[in-house]
Automatic annotation (TrEMBL):
<feature type="region of interest" description="Disordered">
    <location>
        <begin position="552"/>
        <end position="640"/>
    </location>
</feature>
<feature type="compositionally biased region" description="Basic and acidic residues">
    <location>
        <begin position="308"/>
        <end position="317"/>
    </location>
</feature>
<keyword id="KW-0175">Coiled coil</keyword>
<feature type="compositionally biased region" description="Basic and acidic residues">
    <location>
        <begin position="619"/>
        <end position="635"/>
    </location>
</feature>
<feature type="compositionally biased region" description="Polar residues">
    <location>
        <begin position="1"/>
        <end position="26"/>
    </location>
</feature>
<feature type="region of interest" description="Disordered">
    <location>
        <begin position="288"/>
        <end position="339"/>
    </location>
</feature>
<feature type="region of interest" description="Disordered">
    <location>
        <begin position="1"/>
        <end position="34"/>
    </location>
</feature>
<protein>
    <submittedName>
        <fullName>Uncharacterized protein</fullName>
    </submittedName>
</protein>
<feature type="coiled-coil region">
    <location>
        <begin position="379"/>
        <end position="441"/>
    </location>
</feature>
<feature type="compositionally biased region" description="Gly residues">
    <location>
        <begin position="554"/>
        <end position="572"/>
    </location>
</feature>
Length: 741
C-alpha cells in the first residue's frame, strides 16, 4: 500500500489555537517542533514531567484543555520512541537503552490517563479520531515488536478507543457526509487499485486485502472506524448475500434488497445515514419478497468443523458426581476470631492520613496521632532515613493530592468517588509490582530506596481508597469491607517488608565492632516482623471468611453492585473478581456453591437452594452440564483478510514456488533413481491440473477491472456516493474471490 494513506502523518497540527510558552523545565511546549540541540533525554523528561502532574498544567503551557495537550505530548512520545531505538543501535547506546525502557513504561501512564479520564477527554472534538490515528500509526512501526509492553499498550488503547467510539451518525451533517483529507487520500488510492495487474491468485487476494485496508482508512477519515467491523460481521451470513454485488445500479434490488439479502440502504443505515419513511416502507416490501432465483455464487470454502471423536477407552471418564460440600472449620465458640470485631472507621482513616503526613513532615505536620486511633499501626522508621527521603516523600504526596484528590476535600458525588476508586485500583497493582522487583530482585541501595518510596505511596493511596469506600452511598456491604480490609493488610505487610529489606541489607554489611548499631537496627526489623506475623494471621482469617461467604451466599446487601468492593488487586482474588465478575475458588477447595459468572460473590446461589439442601440426583446432571440455552442460529463466518508473505521476487506466488521445488526434487530423483515406471510420475500432475482449472475459473469470475453489473455507472460525486462505491467494489471482490480468502 502506498504511503499516502497508511503512512499519512497523523501528527500534523496536533492542537490548534495554542501559543508556545515556556514549560516549568524550560522547554518550548507549543505545537512546534523540537530544537535539534535538545537531547533525547531532555525531550522525554519534558513529556514525563507533564505526565507526573496528570497533564493538568495545560493552561500554563498554552492549551485550553487537557485533551489537546495530551495529544501533543503523546504524539511527541510516539515520535521519540523510534528515534531512541535508532540511537540505541550505536556502540555507545547504553544510555539510550535505559531511556527507551523509561519511554515504554510511560506509555502505561498515558493509557491510564485516557482510560480514567475518557468521559471528559472524548468530549473534545476529533479527540477520538486523532488518538486512533496515532495509535494505528504507532502499531505499524517495527519497533513495537522490540518490547511486548508496546504491543500491550496498543491493545489496551484499542480497547479504550473501541469502548468510546462515537456512533457513526455523529459524522453526518444533516443528510450529507463532510469530506476530510484522510478520506480523500484513501478514495484516490482506492481508485488506483483497479489498475493493479491480476496475473494469478496471489494478485487477486492481495487486491482484496488492499481494498479492505483502504476502505478502513476511508472510514477512519470519516470518523467512523468501527463501521468496517460492524459491516463485516454479518456480511457472509448464509442466504444474506448483498444484492449490490449481483444486481446493476439503479435496480430496486440494488437499493432496497431482496428478501433476506440487504441492499445499499442497509449500508447507509450502518454508516449512520438517515433513512426516510418511504425508503423504510420499500425496504419492508423488499424483505417480504421471497428470493426464488438467487444468482449463482462461487463455491465457498468449507468451514472447519469439529467432528465427533470416538470415545477413547484409555482416557479416564470424567466423574459427573457433585464435588463434596465444603465444610468450614468449626471453631471453639469460647475463642472468637480476631476478625469478628475487626472494622475500620473514618476516624481511623483520618489518623492514618495524619500519620503519613507526620512521617514525611508534610504541610508542617509533625505530631503523630494517638496510637489508639490507628488500626494496624506500622512500625516506626529511622529518623535519619526519613530526613534523607523527605523531598521524595513530599513529591509523592503532592502528586497523589494533585492526580487523585486531597483528603481534606474529598469528592461529593458517588460517580466521582467510583471513578477515583477505579483509578486507584488500577494503580495499586503497578506499585506492588514495582515494590517486589526493587526490594526482592534488586538489592542496590538506590533501588531499595525507590522500593521504600513506592511502599509509602502505596500506603497513602490505599488510605485514600478506604476513605472513598467508607463515604460510598449506599454504604459498602460486609463482604466489600472484608475484601477492602484484606487488601489493606496486604499493602501494610508489603510496606513493612519493603522497609525491612534495606535495613536487613544494612545489618549484613555492618563491620565487626559495631554491635551496638546492629542491635539498634534489629529493633526496627523485629518490630516490623512482629507486625507482619500478626497481620498475616489476621489476613488469613479474613480470607477464609471471604471464601465462606462466597460459598454460602452470606453477606449480601449494601453497595454490592457499585464500586467493585475496594479490590485494588488484593491477594489476586479481588482483582480477578473485578475483571471477570465471578468468584475465584480457593486453592484445593471444591467449587460447590460458587456463584455463576457475572453474579456478585455475596449473592445467593443461582439455584436458590440452601447450602445444606443438596439438589435431587436428576438435577446434578443439569448442574454439571449447566443451564441449557436456546439454540442460536448458525453464526456467519467472519472473513477478515490478514497479510501473508509479502509478494517479493522470491515469494511472488507461494504455490508456484512450491511447484518449482517439487520439480527440482523430481529431476534430482530421476538422476539418482532413473525415470519413473510407466504410468507413474515423481510429480503430482493431477493436482497441478485441478489447481490450474480452479485458477482459470477464478480468473473468469474475477477479471481485471471487474466489478458488479454496471459498476461503471455508480455515481461518485458526493462523499456518500464515494464511500458506497468503495463498499460495493470491496464486497464484490470478497465474494468473487471468497474461495482464496
Amino acid at each position: 500500500m502506498s504511503s499516502s494513506v497508511v503512512g499519512s502523518d497523523p501528527t500534523t497540527n496536533p492542537a490548534r489555537g495554542s501559543t508556545p510558552v515556556t514549560s516549568p523545565v524550560g522547554s518550548p511546549t507549543g505545537p512546534g517542533t523540537y530544537p535539534h540541540s535538545e537531547t533525547l533525554t531532555a525531550r522525554f523528561e519534558w513529556i514525563e514531567s507533564a505526565g507526573l502532574y496528570g497533564f493538568t498544567d495545560h493552561d500554563v503551557n498554552g492549551y485550553h484543555s487537557a485533551a489537546p495537550y495530551f495529544l501533543h505530548l503523546y504524539t511527541r512520545l510516539l515520535q521519540l520512541i523510534p528515534e531512541t531505538a535508532l540511537a540505541m543501535q550505536k556502540p555507545d547506546g547504553h544510555n539510550e537503552r535505559a531511556l527507551l525502557s523509561r519511554e515504554v513504561k510511560f506509555l502505561e501512564i498515558c493509557h491510564e490517563f485516557v482510560r480514567d479520564n475518557a468521559e471528559e477527554l472524548f468530549k473534545t472534538k476529533d479527540f477520538h479520531y486523532k488518538l486512533w490515528a496515532r495509535v494505528e500509526e504507532f502499531s505499524r512501526q517495527g519497533i513495537t515488536s522490540f518490547d511486548n509492553r508496546m504491543s500491550r499498550h496498543i491493545t489496551r488503547m484499542s480497547f479504550v478507543l473501541g469502548d468510546h467510539a462515537p456512533p457513526p451518525s455523529e459524522s453526518w451533517e444533516g443528510d450529507t457526509l463532510p469530506s476530510h483529507g484522510r478520506f480523500v487520500r484513501a478514495y484516490n488510492e482506492f481508485l488506483e487499485l483497479d489498475d493493479r495487474p491480476l496475473r494469478n491468485d496471489v494478485d487477486r487476494r492481495f487486491l482484496m486485502f488492499l481494498s479492505q485496508e483502504v476502505l478502513g482508512q476511508a472510514l477512519l477519515g470519516l470518523r467512523m472506524p468501527m463501521v468496517s467491523l460492524s459491516v463485516q460481521e454479518n456480511l457472509f451470513l448464509e442466504g444474506a448475500r448483498p444484492t449490490y454485488v449481483d444486481f446493476p445500479y439503479g435496480s430496486d434490488e440494488w437499493l432496497y434488497g431482496l428478501g433476506e439479502r440487504p441492499g445499499v440502504l442497509e449500508l447507509r443505515r450502518k454508516i449512520g445515514g438517515p433513512i426516510t419513511p418511504e425508503q423504510e416502507e420499500r425496504i419492508k416490501k423488499a424483505k417480504a419478497i421471497k428470493n426464488t432465483e438467487e444468482p449463482k455464487q462461487p463455491n465457498n470454502p468449507k468451514q472447519p468443523t469439529d467432528p465427533k471423536q470416538p470415545e477413547d477407552s484409555t482416557r479416564p471418564k470424567e466423574s459427573r458426581k457433585r464435588p463434596a460440600t465444603y465444610v468450614p472449620i468449626q471453631r471453639d465458640p469460647k475463642r472468637p476470631r480476631a476478625i469478628d470485631n475487626y472494622t475500620i472507621t473514618n476516624d481511623n482513616i483520618d489518623a492514618d492520613i495524619q500519620d503519613i503526613y507526620s512521617t514525611a513532615k508534610f504541610l508542617d505536620i509533625s505530631n503523630k496521632p494517638d496510637i489508639a486511633r490507628l488500626l494496624n499501626p506500622t512500625a516506626e522508621n529511622r529518623e535519619d532515613t526519613l530526613n534523607a527521603y523527605e523531598s521524595e516523600l513530599h513529591k509523592v504526596l503532592r502528586q497523589c493530592r494533585l492526580n487523585i484528590y486531597k483528603p481534606e476535600t474529598p469528592p461529593q458525588t458517588q460517580a466521582e468517588r467510583d471513578r477515583l476508586m477505579r483509578q486507584i485500583e488500577n494503580q495499586i497493582p503497578r506499585l506492588r509490582d514495582e515494590i517486589h522487583k526493587k526490594s526482592d530482585m534488586i538489592t542496590s541501595a538506590s533501588k531499595l530506596k525507590e522500593a521504600r518510596v513506592a511502599a509509602f505511596t502505596l500506603k497513602f493511596i490505599r488510605t485514600l481508597h478506604m476513605k472513598l469506600l467508607l463515604a460510598s452511598d449506599p454504604p459498602p456491604s460486609v463482604s466489600q469491607m472484608r475484601h477492602a480490609l484484606r487488601d489493606r493488610l496486604d499493602d501494610w505487610i508489603l510496606h513493612e517488608q519493603a522497609w525491612n529489606a534495606a535495613d536487613e541489607k544494612a545489618i549484613k554489611h555492618i563491620r565487626p565492632g559495631f554491635a551496638g548499631k546492629k542491635n539498634w537496627l534489629m529493633k526496627f526489623v523485629d518490630a516490623r516482623n512482629q507486625n507482619i506475623q500478626s497481620w498475616w494471621t489476621l489476613r488469613d482469617q479474613l480470607d477464609e471468611a471471604i471464601r465462606e461467604e462466597a460459598l454460602s451466599g452470606v453477606g449480601a446487601g449494601g453497595n454490592d453492585g457499585g464500586n467493585g468492593g475496594g479490590g485494588g488487586g488484593g491477594g489476586g482474588e479481588a482483582r480477578e473478581q473485578a475483571k471477570t465478575g465471578e468468584a475465584q475458588p480457593a486453592d484445593n477447595q471444591p467449587v460447590e456453591g460458587q456463584p455463576a459468572k457475572g453474579q456478585p460473590v455475596d449473592s445467593p446461589p443461582a439455584d436458590n437452594q440452601p447450602a445444606d439442601n443438596p439438589p435431587a440426583p436428576a438435577e446434578e446432571t443439569k448442574q454439571a452440564e449447566g443451564p441449557k440455552e436456546p439454540k442460536e442460529p448458525k453464526r456467519a463466518p467472519l472473513y477478515w483478510l490478514e497479510p501473508r508473505k509479502a509478494p517479493t521476487t522470491v515469494y511472488f506466488d507461494e504455490r508456484e514456488e512450491a511447484r518449482r521445488e517439487e520439480r527440482a526434487r523430481a529431476r534430482a530423483m530421476e538422476r539418482l533413481l532413473g525415470p519413473p515406471s510407466p504410468g507413474e510420475s515423481y510429480l503430482d500432475e493431477e493436482r497441478y491440473r485441478l489447481e490450474d482449472e480452479f485458477s482459470a475459473k477464478l480468473a473468469a469470475a474475477f477479471p481485471a477491472h471487474g466489478g458488479p453489473p454496471a459498476h461503471e455507472t455508480i455515481p461518485r460525486e458526493t462523499v456518500y456516493d464515494k464511500i458506497i462505491y468503495m463498499f460495493v467494489m470491496t464486497h464484490w471482490r470478497y465474494f468473487a474471490g471468497i474461495a482464496i480468502i
